[in-house]
From TrEMBL:
Name of the protein in question: Pectate lyase
Organism encoding this protein: Momordica charantia (Bitter gourd)
GO biological process, one term: pectin catabolic process
Lineage, highest ranks first: Eukaryota, Viridiplantae, Streptophyta, Embryophyta, Tracheophyta
Chloroplast keyword on record: no
Location relative to the cell: Secreted, Cell wall
Record bears the keyword Secreted: yes
Catalysis: reaction(s): Eliminative cleavage of (1->4)-alpha-D-galacturonan to give oligosaccharides with 4-deoxy-alpha-D-galact-4-enuronosyl groups at their non-reducing ends
Family membership noted in the UniProt record: Belongs to the polysaccharide lyase 1 family.
Co-factor: note: Binds 1 Ca(2+) ion. Required for its activity.
EC number(s) reported in the record: 4.2.2.2
Enzyme class per UniProt: lyase
Entries under PANTHER family matching the protein: PECTATE LYASE 18-RELATED, PECTATE LYASE 20-RELATED
Length: 434
């Protein structure tokens, strides 16, 4: 910062000196009636006049002002040397004062879930208590007490903590869970349920070792609690909900899916997450017979599908799915699968096939005959196939169909390593770029 300030001061000083010289010359050589007088000019005066005289001194003043404003703006933002090409991260991560402008994150969304505002228009809520002793009457200061409130809230954490939930965390609409600046784990118990609500952002959590729970009373709002049957043990379960953004979380080792979206959910973005050590990673679509999922639109972007994964990255039904600029470095069975005529638009991903010669195919049509799935619109465009990986396309490629499965511009697959280098929960420190 000292170097940039010195350069700015030197440049500005030179321009200001130039402006003062011009004003001085104009004052000396232009009379009150506008006539010029050179009678008392010395050789030095003539040299100065010839060197610095311009037709429009006000133009120089404007240049000085522009230089000052540009240098100040660059110094205040400090953004220009840290871009990665990841449009979400480049929107906010370069700002060393991110913790003072946390809600700016809500303006950085992309894809089908880009309009999820979460708790942007509400107050901050600080979680100070990792406990979850009573799912019906949660204590103030706990995460459960925060997420059930009826008003928009931007939820942050006072310190590092491990939250072991006794029952599902039933969220209410217009909430952001923002764990930046703290190391927050939701683990070893129930996990997160987003059911029949809208506008949720979940950012920066470690979610792992989620277990089936249920057959218990659980509160979902200040005015309502009810009986919950058995939950599957998903990391994040999205059920009949819309405008959801799941960003920069690390997920692994849950009883069922890491992220599932079913029962008419739509307008979802799943971005910048790091998935590891799991079998059935992501299910999008309830069942082959549940036709309401035909409205589903999901963006899966900039994620890293890493070690220990087996299948469903994702497994899709009925809807429209944009799989863009993700890094697939491990699968055992397949990466992307589906049934019931989903439209899958794979663009700019990097697929690294396993050593197993019988598992090189990226795609899998689940329990469907060739004569049926050949009509489904699945395409690979600009994907990088490594170690023998191959994508089996299908369908006539109807423009209207792929338009509904397109949510942002894909970048070159050669940039995937850079774009996904920060996938997962980030280690952010206050006062520093994240």
């Amino acid at each position: 910062m000292a170097v940039s300030q010195t350069r700015f001061s030197a440049a500005s000083s030179s321009l200001l000196l130039l402006l003062l010289n011009i004003v001085f010359i104009r004052f000396r050589f232009v009379g009150a009636d506008g006539s010029q007088s050179f009678n008392s000019s010395s050789m030095a005066d003539r040299y100065i006049k010839n060197q610095h005289a311009v037709d429009n001194p006000e133009e120089i003043a404007s240049m000085v002002d522009l230089s000052i404003r540009n240098s100040t703006e660059r110094r205040n933002l400090g953004f220009f040397s840290c871009g990665t090409g990841n449009p979400i991260d480049d929107c906010w991560r370069c700002d060393p004062r991110w913790q003072l402008r946390r809600k700016h994150l809500a303006d950085c969304g992309i894809g089908f879930g880009r309009n999820a505002v979460g708790g942007r228009d509400g107050r901050y809520y600080v979680v100070s208590d990792p406990g979850d002793d009573d799912p019906v009457n949660p204590r103030p200061g706990t995460l459960r007490h925060a997420v059930i409130q009826d008003r928009p809230l931007w939820i942050v954490f006072k310190r590092d903590m491990v939250i072991t939930l006794k029952q599902e965390l039933i969220m209410n609409s217009f909430k952001t869970i923002d764990a930046r600046g703290a190391n927050v784990h939701i683990a070893y118990g129930a996990c997160i349920t987003i059911q029949f609500i809208t506008n949720v952002i979940i950012h920066g959590l470690h979610i792992h070792d989620c277990k089936p729970t249920g057959n218990a009373m659980v509160r979902s709002s200040p005015s309502h609690y009810g009986w919950r049957t058995m939950a599957d043990g998903d990391g994040i379960s999205i059920f009949g909900s819309s405008h959801i953004w799941i960003d920069h979380n690390s997920l692994s080792t849950c009883a069922d899916g890491l992220i599932d979206a079913v029962m008419g959910s739509t307008a979802i973005t799943i971005s910048n997450n790091y998935f590891t050590h799991h079998n059935e990673v992501m299910l999008l679509g309830h069942s082959d017979s549940y036709v309401r999922d035909k409205q589903m639109q999901v963006t899966i972007a900039y994620n890293h599908f890493g070690e220990g994964l087996i299948q469903r990255m994702p497994r899709c039904r009925h809807g429209y799915f944009h799989v863009v600029n993700n890094d697939y470095t491990h699968w055992v069975m397949y990466a992307i699968g589906g049934s019931a005529d989903p439209t899958i638009n794979s663009q700019g991903n990097r697929y690294l096939a396993p050593v197993n010669p019988f598992a090189k195919e990226v795609t899998k049509r689940v329990d469907t005959s060739n004569g049926v799935w050949k009509q489904w619109n699945w395409r690979s465009e600009g994907d990088l196939m490594l170690n023998g990986a191959y994508f089996t396309p299908s369908g006539a490629g109807a423009a209207a169909s792929y338009a509904r499965a397109s949510s942002l511009g894909a970048k070159s697959s050669s940039l995937v390593a850079s774009i996904t280098s920060g996938a997962g929960a980030l280690s952010c420190r206050r006062g520093y770029r994240c």
